[in-house]
Design a protein that fits this description.
- With about 190 residues, the protein is mostly helical.
- The chain has one domain.
- Helices cover about 65% and strands about 5% of the residues.
- A two-stranded antiparallel ribbon has the order 1-2.
- Strand 1 and strand 2 form a beta hairpin.
- Helix 5 crosses helix 6 and helix 9 packs antiparallel against helix 10.
- The N and C termini lie far apart (about 40 Å).
- This is AbiV family abortive infection protein.
- InterPro entries: AbiV (IPR030987).
- It comes from uncultured Desulfobacterium sp.
């Protein structure tokens, strides 16, 4: 099911995830904190943890973006909630409007931007978040997160998370517009590494 079909099919109820502008502002503060933490970890060389928080920020943006309009109950699968499904949240974060501006393409390049969009839309973020957290055996060897997540990927994900936030939430409330100065500064800081 395409992400737009899924969103359109979600029931609107009086039990929406977010029920006021004040609650939306709380989610904005939470997301900005995730982005700040991701960027701090990136700047300190903790690339796997940075990548994990960037993906988490994207998930939370997706929830906040449509949480004012729904409780998240899946239209076709009883007992399922899209706000608990990582793959669905990744797809909702990577809406076609994200790459429309030039800022992200200028920072990443066209190919890297397309790669990260494809990762988000095709379950690549699910594997990346697992790789960022857990060691595992591959081809007879133990592999740790720092061997799977490098500086380039962590940088891409941090910039992507900032752009996803900016695209989906900045301007919904006065607070979201005011706080985006923080994420814009972080974008420039990470971009220049």
């Amino acid at each position: 099911m395409e992400v737009f079909e899924l969103i359109q099919g979600i029931a609107r109820t009086d039990e929406n995830l977010i029920q006021s502008a004040e609650e939306l502002d709380k989610t904005v503060d939470h997301i900005v904190q995730l982005i700040q933490d991701s960027c701090t970890l990136y700047m300190k060389g903790s690339y796997p943890s940075s990548a994990f928080l960037s993906i988490t920020a994207c998930e939370e943006v997706a929830k906040a973006h449509i949480g004012s309009f729904t409780d998240g109950k899946h239209p076709d699968k009883k007992g399922r909630n899209i706000f608990m499904d990582h793959k669905t949240k990744h797809q909702m974060a990577a809406l076609p409007t994200v790459p429309m501006g030039k800022r992200l393409e200028d920072a990443l390049g066209k190919d890297e931007l397309q790669r990260v969009m494809n990762m988000a839309q095709n379950a690549g973020f699910v594997q990346t978040r697992e790789n960022a957290l857990y060691f595992q055996r591959e081809n007879g060897s133990l592999v740790i997160p720092s061997e799977k997540i490098d500086k380039k990927l962590a940088r891409t994900l941090a910039l992507f998370a900032i752009e996803v936030f900016d695209d989906a939430l900045v301007g919904f409330t006065n607070h979201s517009y005011e706080i985006h100065d923080i994420t814009d500064a972080l974008f420039e800081q990470v971009k220049n590494t």
